[in-house]
Amino acid sequence: MIFYFMKRICSIILVILCSQMLYAQQRPQYTQYIFNNYILNPAISGIENYIDVKAGYRNQWEGLTDAPVTSYVSLHAPLGKKFTYGSATSVAEGGGDNPMNRSYLQTYRASEPHHGVGFHIVSDKTGPISRTDVNLTYAYHLGITESLNLAVGVAAGVSRINLDVSKITLEEEFDPAIISGANSKTQPDLGAGVWLYGPRYFAGVSAQQLLGRPLSFSDDASYDQGKLVPHMFFTAGYKFYLGDDIAAIPSTMIKYVSPAPASIDVNMKVAFRDKFWLGGSYRKDDSFAALAGFNLGSFLNLSYSYDFTTSNLRSVSNGTHEIVLGIFLNNRYKVSCPQRNW
Known about the structure:
Elements: H1 2-23, E1 51-59, E2 69-79, H2 81-84, H3 104-107, E3 114-126, E4 129-143, E5 149-163, E6 184-197, E7 201-208, E8 214-215, E9 226-227, E10 231-238, E11 240-241, E12 246-256, E13 263-272, E14 276-283, E15 287-296, E16 300-309, E17 320-329
Antiparallel strand pairs: 1-2, 1-17, 2-3, 3-4, 4-5, 5-6, 6-7, 7-10, 8-9, 10-12, 11-12, 12-13, 13-14, 14-15, 15-16, 16-17
């Protein structure tokens, strides 16, 4: 009897510890957030004058067994012919001025009021836990001054979370904290965001997992210690022109997930015309990163980053690789560099 209660207490402690660890890891980390802020903030839906498609892959802490691996596909597009097909405040025929050119400041105009829609599918696997998130997004964009835009967006979908029991070693075959047949959960998901943007700056606030649903792999309420907690993101950036065709863009992302400490990223991107860019990033108490990317014509772009681990995991990790492929569909104005989501 004493052994049974000791085992029960240990199981509860294990579940609590795992759930506390998962609070910081429920949503994937992205080094290249500036290349696809849409994956964090639904207010960006339909921000550009074309259909924006992105595919990303991240292999975190390579060399560490069962380390996080993330992949995603996202697509979003504007609605409304006045914005999509052009107007005095839309993109000019042939793409207009290169947004990394200083003259872009004189030709920039706020967006016509329009709607945007999209979706993203994210697959993330860490150790015995894997999850797939599918979300539909909607945003409304409004020019509040001649050069300042405000967008508000929402995201709604489902999260499918699986526990691979075969990767867990138990003292006994049966453990009430993990019930066979209860190792797969589907939960509703809800997110929201606000995005403020102009020719030289952007700032956004967003939240994911707003519903805060409980998460358990047992039908025994005493083991129901897990929970999907809200994730808060704040992102901001500013564009400095270093010459007529060179722009430097410092940015930051702050992620807060209670009860974990805030995660802070600082990023610097230097873009050369609309052709290619180089950059670096620092994540507090975690890593440094090098980034590079290029735009190939008016159809696709590609970026890559490598994180150098600075935490205690550096002794077992060979760093983190992340690659993002972007495709411009229905790009009738032959834009080769994003005009409003840089």
